[in-house]
Automatic annotation (TrEMBL):
Protein name (Swiss-Prot/TrEMBL): Membrane protein
Record bears the keyword ATP-binding: no
UniProt-listed CDD domains: OmpA_C-like
Keyword vocabulary terms for this entry: Cell outer membrane, Membrane
InterPro entries on file: Bact_OuterMem_StrucFunc, OMP_bac, OmpA-like, OmpA-like_sf
Subcellular location: Cell outer membrane
Source organism, top-level taxon: Bacteria
Chief location category: membrane
One protein family per Pfam: OmpA
Segments forming domain OmpA-like: 62-179
Amino acid sequence: MALTRTQKFLAATSILALLTGCEETLSRYGEAGHAPDSEGWGSSVENNVGMMNGTQSYVVSLAERFNREVADTVNFAFNSAQLDADARTVLDRQAHFIRQFPEVRFRVYGHTDLVGSTAYNKGLGLRRAQAVVAYLATRGVSRSRLEAMVSYGETRPVVNTQDRERRNRRTVTEVSGFVEDAPLILNGKYAEVIAREYVRSATEMPPSSSSNGGGGGGS
């Protein structure tokens, strides 16, 4: 059947529109199979791409996240390895973070101020690190994931002073690597870890409410 002039015109117009669309697509994305630029990508996509092509280290990325979300340092009283209330609060948050990533190891470093002998302070720094590890273990973190505690003693002060300085009397918790024989999650499976914890948090029972309308005394 012969096409009318109107049909021919519409067909030609449609072809021109399709070609124009293709040109715009090519100018923006390149030929078929060409990797598009990362413009407009979400950070999670960029993160997984980085993991896949080796440009981003999972350990480094997790360490940066740990430092952003959780305080890595707790401080101590002079000549003490006892954890005070503030230290326990920080360690509770550390433990919550660490439990989310069973594939990863952490290491605790102990420090002291510059008062006292080098040998004594090295031992004191180690006792502080051990106290932190012991506390994290009570909060559900496996000791097998807390690598050998290290004491720097008085050799790495935050404030270089010979006087007593609380900021120097500290432990620092850091990401140190993967659990031995754990599968590396560098191949785009980072999202699986996040999804696993998201589902777990959504299915945990919330704490029971104490607002029952009664006014009775405490125990």
